């Protein structure tokens, strides 16, 4: 671990990043060049003290999970991310989209989406990033770690909380869609991949998953139209559009409703309500 070089790298990239680049409000004239340390820490979901110590050459060796979070917060390119990992004494992560690193191009689009729910997921269902509206609608995924970061895993292992967001009549169809999408990823990645790890865990923990997995259904397509449920707002009808990376390993999902529709009005209300009421009802 090269502490001086790591500290200098972090500081220079923090100072080069403008608030608008990271989806933050610009606000009045700022004394600090680029982002503040507390802003980077907030984007990376870590303590300000931890991040500050890294910039002051006093921190412990960061884990690969911490480095992935910092890479996302600083909007690093793949090459810059690889260099960051090496400075911290780790091997560069693979670039197949399942290691937690968000595709920079998708992240730039996500940063500019403020009036509709949007999130970036991997081809096996890991939620890699979400905007404020998506957190208000689906819950804040930053509270999860390990396999629970995966939407498919939560759907089958934590069904009571996870399925509240979908009408009961739609839940069986959504279960099949989750499994068929994982089957497609498993087919391309193989049993020794993260997809294989996820499948083994679900076969061990969910009889419902086991039954659906045995049907060998394969599909990658996202639903164009869906109905979601919010604890305060109720049913929200939205259209879903997916923007994929070139290698199909990640997708940006954007949920919208036609202007003037009831769904559009409910999305506006969701923006006002934010995350508080969802959190109250999901625990």
Unreliable runs: 277-283
How many domains in all? 2
> What overall form do the CA principal axes indicate?
globular
What is the mean predicted local confidence, pLDDT? 84
Indicate the radius of gyration in whole angstroms: 20 Å
Q: What is the helix content?
A: 40-55%
CATH architecture name of the largest domain: 2-Layer Sandwich
**Largest beta sheet, briefly?**
5 strands, antiparallel
Short account of what is shown:
By secondary structure, the protein is of the alpha+beta class. The chain has helices spanning 3-16, 37-44, 48-55, 64-73, 78-87, 104-111, 132-138, 151-157, 159-162, 171-189, 194-205, 207-213, 262-273, 276-281; strands at 118-122, 127-130, 225-230, 234-244, 250-256. It has a five-stranded antiparallel sheet with strand order 2-1-5-4-3.
